[in-house]
Every structure is written in C-alpha cells, then in structure tokens.
Amino acid sequence: MRAFRFAALAAAVLALAPAARAETQFEQNNRILLDQLAEVHNLTPKQKADVEAIFRRSGYIGQGNPAIVRHPMSVEECQARAPQGGKGYANRQFEKICGGKYMAPLYDPRTEKPEDAKACIDQFEFPDIPCTYPVTWVKAVEAAEICSAMGKRLCDAHEWEGACAGALEPPDYPFGAGSVAAMRNIHNSKYAATKSWAYGPEYQRGVCAADSTKSPGCNGGGWNGCGTNTYPTGAFPGCVSKLGVYDQHGNAAEHMNLPMKPSEMASNGSKTLGVTEMKGSWFIWDKYRAHPDWCRWRAPYWHGSRVMSPGSHSNYHLGFRCCKTVD
What we know:
Blueprint: H1 2-16, H2 25-40, H3 45-58, H4 75-81, H5 92-98, E1 103-106, E2 119-122, H6 140-149, E3 153-154, H7 157-165, H8 180-191, E4 253-258, E5 275-279, E6 318-320, E7 322-325
Parallel strand pairs: 4-6
Antiparallel strand pairs: 1-2, 2-7, 3-7, 4-5
Helix pairs in contact: 2-3, 3-6
C-alpha cells in the first residue's frame, strides 16, 4: 500500500512538472552548425564543447535571427555554383602547410613560396565551410575565444590585409603615433595610391556576395529588426584573392586585432590583444557603399574597444575568420 501511494505521488508530481521545452529554430540551426563544424574541422569533443559553450553563453551568436533572416541564395544554389558543390575548394597543398582544412598560407609571392608561410588564414568566414552561412552577432572577445578553442587565433589586421591584397607584407603598425586615428591615417596614406580589391585594381559590382538587402524593419542593429541576410560562403568563386582567400568583400564584415604596441600582436604569439578593427564590407555593398573597402584600408574606430573587452561590439552583419601560426 505504501509503495502504491509513493507511485501515485510521483505521478502527480510529474503531471505538475512543466513539459520539456521544445528546441527553437535558432537552437536547431546552431546544433546543426556545430555538428558540421566538428565534422569538417575534425574537432575533438572538448573543442566542440568549448565552442558550443561560447555560443550558448552569448545567446545570439549564430547565423542570424531565423524569424527575420531572408537569405538571397540557398545552400543548394551555392553548391550548384561552387566547384564540385564546394568540395572543390579543398586544397591538399594548403592543408599540408596549414595543418587543417580550408586555410590558406600567408606569404609574399614576390619573394616567397607557400611553404615559407609562418601563418595561415581561414579561406572563408567562420565557420570556414564552403556553402555555409557565416556566423554573426559575435563580439570580438567571443571571436577570439572561438578561434582559440579551435587551436587558432584572431588575425592581426596586416594579416587579413595581406590575404586580401595577395601579398603578406611586414607589419606596418606606427606604434609611436599615439592613437588609433593617427595610426590609421599614416597607414591609409601609405597605401592609398596602390589600393586594390581581392579580385583586382577596381571595385566591381556582382563579383562578391554584396547584392542582398537589409530587412525592411531594420532599425540600425536590433536582433528583432535586422536580419543577417547573407549569402553562403564561397557562393562567388570570383571573389577570391591571389592567395586563395574568399569573401573578403561582401557578406559579413570581420573582427580583427589591431595591436597598439608590439606586445599586442597575435602573430607574435601574444595573448594580450589590442583594439578592435572591422575589416571588409557586408552584404548590401553593391547597393550602398557606406565606406571604402579596399584591401589594406583601415576603418575609423567604430564601436571601438579592447578586443578582449566583455563589451566589444556585435551586430547582424559582423562576423570573423581565424588565423593560425604554423611551424
């Protein structure tokens, strides 16, 4: 009799307990993305768990708010355009040099060979998988943490610029200039006469993932009003640099590290990073060019912060890609 009463009480408690919460579309998208990330990039269980924890802690990192996102191209359409459905982007020579898939060596072709590279950069915006929508709504600190969790690091600004311009040049940070604005002006003046885009010396419409549109209700950056209306990465095979790096114009702008002193250079092994630098342009650029986006152009200190600040900026068209130091 006592056992019967206990069973009845347990059943009553279960009946009053709330039902298991259904997985949201956003959570489902991230689960699929993380599974794909682990498979393509051969993550260990710990690496996957660490990346997943960063996503979960944020609550916003992912491929945008699915309630309002309107991608202009499907994954299937990208696979029809990309070489071998995207698999043709794999490069065995690069994999051997970089120790991982979908990374490109950073070097100067005028004096070096790919094998001379001391660093590599993701060929595509994170998750660095062809024909996959880039991840946005990520803060600079979260981007740095995700790269680190995968055995990589956030790129220094000059590395991203070299990947885009097709030649990695020595670091050119005028550390004694005294401010971000002064450093920027010196750098931009140095390269203004030789400006170029990944695909050539002049800006061209239709070459990169830059002909999408903002959400009709986009109010300047809100989660519920601004969709991440990106294209799949690698959907524009002609949007590539001479070093084999894709989508550095259009799609998502990208977090990078701008060192303010030599001890803040990620490429030198520093864990103490500098300030945020946003590289590239985003998915509406063919319709509205809000600022320059040539390869070596450095932006004003928009939404500026230390890279590792908990309050670093995120929005619907801001993502990242990682670099990796190689032996």
